[in-house]
Amino acid sequence: MLKVGIAGIGMMGNTHLEAYSKLKGVKVVAVADLIKARREGRVAVAGNVKGQAQSSTDFSTFRQYVEAADMIVDPDIDIIDICLPTPSHAKYAMMALKAGKHVLTEKPFARTAREAQQLAQAAAKADTLLMCAMCMRFWPAWTWLKEAIDKEAYGPVLGATFRRVTSLPPGDFYADADLNGGAILDLHIHDTDFIQHCFGKPQAVYSRGYSHTTSGIDHILTHYIYDHIPLVTAEGSWALNKAFGFAMQYTVNFAHATAVFDISAEPQLKLMRNGKTTAVKIKDGVGYEHEIAYFVKCVKNGTRPEVIDPTSAALSVTIVEAEKKSLETGRIVNI
Ligand SMILES: NC(=O)c1ccc[n+]([C@@H]2O[C@H](COP(=O)([O-])OP(=O)(O)OC[C@H]3O[C@@H](n4cnc5c(N)ncnc54)[C@H](O)[C@@H]3O)[C@@H](O)[C@H]2O)c1
Prior knowledge:
With 335 residues, the chain is of the alpha/beta class. It has helices at 11-21, 36-39, 68-72, 89-98, 113-125, 140-151, 172-175, 177-180, 182-186, 189-199, 287-301, 310-329, and strands spanning 2-7, 26-32, 63-65, 79-82, 102-106, 130-133, 157-165, 204-210, 219-225, 231-237, 247-254, 258-262, 269-273, 276-279, 333-334. It folds into 2 domains: 2-133, Rossmann fold (3-Layer(aba) Sandwich); 137-288 and 317-334, Dihydrodipicolinate Reductase, domain 2, CATH 3.30.360.
């Protein structure tokens, strides 16, 4: 039985807790949070995805730590799962690798590209495994898309647009762009990362956007420039009005079909071909569950996670920083 300690039991810590509870051969034995009510499981949280983080777990069986660093050295834990605020990801992941633990860390991989690259280097030398929880790489309708692109099932991609827009989430963490890196690093990175996963490293990026709700970049639209695909864009925002809700969408135009995903639509994934629209049947579950099941399987088998390796997780932070530079300078920025 693999034993897990979750560092930070806020919205994502609860989401991960719920995902582990659905798996066999692994169990959460400890949690750490600076806030007493959270480490005792007495705070209700909610995320953008319907039903997310709504577990009714009994926390009384967990060893409860205040400071994550104290839990990391607990010898009776195999996996440290880091759901701490973004500036702590690299520091605590490094600490957990040094303590000989396997590590799953929430996205973004680190607050800065420099830290992300240092963490990837540390992971390459470690005997234990490190994976960044880039959940879109495991989201059923998105794994369908990746497979369709890789197999050229509908011909080559001509144009791909991704969209993830909402209003500013509540709480001090989201109000402080120094902590979260702005919508560009906290939210939009999901699409930057998925684009990199599907199409490889872009040659360059060109971004436009603005600050509105925080001092960081709150709304961005980026062109990812590739030789082999005419048009790839992603829009990310938490600057919209509260009444808007949350949109997570893609439209991918292949030479012989168009695929459209919308998390709020029914069905969520549609394929348009020869003038007809069909619903695409997708795997059950959400990305968080599949990513955690995959990581646990890698730990059990002793295989390095290939779906998202540390170098690739670090590259996504590097691309986001290039997008920021493009937006600030008004120029195309080479990667
Ligand atoms: N994958 C996704 O879709 C997704 C969605 C939302 C957030 N996230 C990421 O997850 C991370 C956490 O976000 P959240 O919304 O759960 O935040 P949150 O504020 O709800 O939870 C973080 C928790 O960490 C605790 N904490 C901070 N420092 C600590 C320390 N040293 N020791 C112990 N506890 C400590 C805080 O008290 C807090 O309860 C962020 O980096 C965010 O970007 C990912």
